[in-house]
Structure formats: structure tokens, C-alpha cells
Amino acid sequence: MKSMTSLLAKPIRALRLVTKVGISAAVALGAMLMPVSPASAHHGWPGFQTDRLVYISGTVSSDGVWGNPHSQFDVILDGNLPGDTPDLTIPEQLSDPEDSVRVNAAFAYGGPHKELEVIIAPPAWSGRWGLARALKVGERFQAVGYINRTDDGLFRPVVFWYGDDAVPVNQVLGNELPVRAPLPK
């Protein structure tokens, strides 16, 4: 004769399995329905058109925000952008020929905006890479980077140059571009 414990073991195991599956399904459904916050939308590179580097140049036009999670400001674009990136110093972190050739070959911005919102690395990272302060309104700014996929007025550089001396500032973690897309033709 089987004990009461052995008779109940199979239904209890089945109940535990159903509970685990139910909880997993509820967590997955919750994750799918959770709205994406603006902060998570701009973190990382997947939100940007990483198949095409773009060169911009202009003048800082707002104080913006110097802080975490990212610093932001606006740049009024020059009226006459060159066809591609002018001859500028490439930061050491992007000096690998596979990266520097892509930065130098970036086509000039050809979008509809005369002003772009620029989002850069937080102060701790930008400070390590050559910019230890907020940029000033009226300061010269050049950059190579990506346009946001859903907001074509938002630009995120992989490298930028500031001031009349065009001081280079890396903006990528590690020592290579987030994506080594094919060179423009």
C-alpha cells in the first residue's frame, strides 16, 4: 500500500510546474508591455543608425546639461558643411586603421535640421577622454557619429572636436567603433 505522501507527490510536482510556467509567462508579458523610458531609449548604440557615420560641424547653441547619465546640448550647424570629414586628429582610442578610415570617410550631415541635439558620454568618461567641463554657448564643435533611429534631430558622436584648436574627444568604450559598417561609396 502506498503512503499518503507518495500519492500526493505527483500532483504536487505538477502544481509546482504549472506555477513556474505561469510566473515565467507573467514576467515575460510584463516585460513586453513595459514602456521604454526616454533614458533607456538613448543608452547604447542600437538606438542609432550605426550603418552610417555622419560628420557635423557648427556652434554650441545651448548650455544643455552637463551630468549623468549623459551630457546634452544643442549645436547650430554650419551652412556650408564639407563633403566629408576634414583632416582632424583622431583620438588614440580610434586610431586603429579600421576605425580611423571610417571616421575620416564619414559624409557630412545632409538631413533637414539646422540644429541638432547632441548627446555625449557622462562627465566622468568625457573627462578621461579630454573634456573635463561643459561646452560653452558659442564654442566651435565638430563631430562624427550617428543619427538616432526614431528622432532624426538627435545625434550621438563616436568622436568630437571642440574649440578653435579642435581638441579631440573619444566617445566610445573600448578601442573600436560600435559597428564597423562598410565604407561609404
Account of the 3D structure:
Helices cover 26% and strands 23% of the residues. With 185 residues, it is an alpha+beta fold. It has a five-stranded mixed β-barrel with strand order 1-2-4-6-5. Strand 5 and strand 6 form a beta hairpin. 28% of the residues are buried. Mean pLDDT is 84; it is low at 25-42.
Q: Largest beta sheet: what is the strand line-up?
A: 1-2-4-6-5
The number of helices is 4
Cα(first) to Cα(last) distance is 81 Å
Main beta sheet: 5 strands, mixed, barrel
Give start-end ranges of low-pLDDT stretches: 25-42
Write a concise keyword list for the protein shown above.
single chain; about 180 residues; alpha+beta; five-stranded mixed β-barrel
Chain-wise SSE layout:
Elements: H1 4-33, H2 38-42, E1 54-60, E2 71-77, H3 97-104, E3 107-108, E4 115-120, H4 123-128, E5 140-147, E6 154-162, E7 167-170
Q: What is the compact description of this entry?
A:
This protein is an alpha+beta fold and 185 residues long. Helices cover 26% and strands 23% of the residues.
